[in-house]
């Protein structure tokens, strides 16, 4: 990714996360180079924020009303020790696997889509669900203008264990978003909803 685009993404994340104290995580493999920025919990957003930098370099095969260049972010429980290198690597690998899936399989993914990791390569997690980043108050977080013709769509990656994935398959993507990620009417709350 060009330095000017990295700078725009960094300013975008800094602005919407309301902080500028991130640490950059680099991949072990440079075949598809996607870095991540790790932001610590704050009083305003009391959870870790891990966001990709570089996934939007790869246009996805397809398009919807949002666009076909994605960046991905994950919000992580503040109780998780992300200062522990191995713990941070586990979450980075999951975020990276999500970004690489679309690129390596030449497919389009966007909000409401889910991925299943049937090979068990993601430390016991069964898959992920892609959502709009509703935990961030300002909806401007969704789009980052990188250049005249390129806009990155910033999607939230929600890790799923087997039980959550089965629930998703049972009720469908839209209903799952309402009952699990951001429940409206007394559904079982995801930890993000409790903060």
What structural class is derived from the secondary structure elements? Answer: alpha+beta
Taking pLDDT < 50 over at least 5 consecutive residues as the criterion, the unreliable ranges are none
Shape: globular
Instruction: Give the integer mean of the pLDDT values.
Output: 86
Tell me the distance between the termini: 34 Å
What is the helix content? Answer: 25-40%
Rg over alpha carbons: 16 Å
Q: Tally the beta strands.
A: 8
| Number of spatially distinct domains | 1
How are helices and strands ordered from N to C? Answer: HEEEEHEEEEHHH
Count of runs of 4 or more consecutive helical residues: 5
How many strands, which pairing sense, and closed or not: the largest β-sheet?
Answer: 8 strands, mixed
Give a description of the structure.
The radius of gyration is 16 Å and the shape is globular. 37% of the residues are buried. It contains 5 helices and 8 strands. The protein starts with a helix and ends with a helix. It has one domain. By secondary structure, it is an alpha+beta fold. Strands 1, 2, 3, 4, 5, 6, 7 and 8 form an 8-stranded mixed beta sheet that branches. It has helices at residues 3-17, 85-105, 162-171, 173-181, 191-194, and strands spanning 23-25, 35-39, 48-53, 70-76, 114-116, 127-131, 143-147, 150-160. α3 crosses α4 (173-181). The mean pLDDT is 86.
